[in-house]
Amino acid sequence: MFRRLYDLVVRGAGHPRAPTWLGVLSFAESSFFPIPPDVMLAPMVLADRRRAWWFALIATVGSVLGGMLGYLIGALFLETLLPWLRELGYYEGYATARDWFADYGFWAVLLAGFSPIPYKVFTIAAGAVAMPFVPFALGSLIGRGARFFIVAGLVRWFGPVFEQRLLKYIDWIGWAIVAAVFIAVAVYQLR
């Protein structure tokens, strides 16, 4: 099922309405859909490198708005969703996200933009633990924006070779960025 969805998203990247679909995909992925927008963003940037920053902005705005829906879902419907999270294998990610909010708050949302744990898990967890909304929205904007602008920039500059490597190693790259930010925060707090 996920492979078919992935293939559909990649094929849609060449369509004239692809920017609209990118916004919708980014919105949906932040609250309920399993395919990350990177798989559509990268081919779109390759197809029209001059519009790379525009595509990254569309993905960012869609993702932040979808994250707000995820926040609302977590705030209002968490008890209903818990069995579903367990069944789909997202519960451990949810528990991790919940713990990160307790320890790091704003920084957890910012890091979630790069984490290989699905972003929807963080948005739902933020609403479930009643994280203050403004830091949540700001962390979403910075974290998701940084991710999409970095992806668009790298694909724009390095082309098809980078796209293939990016998609192959996206989880490793995400964890490396999360580790780097954790180290930076730890060093900052030790000062």
From TrEMBL:
Q: Which is one Pfam family of this protein?
A: VTT_dom
Domain VTT, by residue range, is 48-155
Keywords on record: Lipoprotein, Membrane, Transmembrane, Transmembrane helix
- The source's superkingdom equals Bacteria
The record's annotation in InterPro entries points to:
DedA_domain (IPR051311), VTT_dom (IPR032816)
> What cellular-component terms does GO give this entry?
plasma membrane
The membrane-spanning stretches of this chain are: 53-78, 104-122, 129-152, 172-190
Q: What name goes with this protein?
A: Lipoprotein B
Q: Which organism is it from?
A: Salinisphaera orenii MK-B5
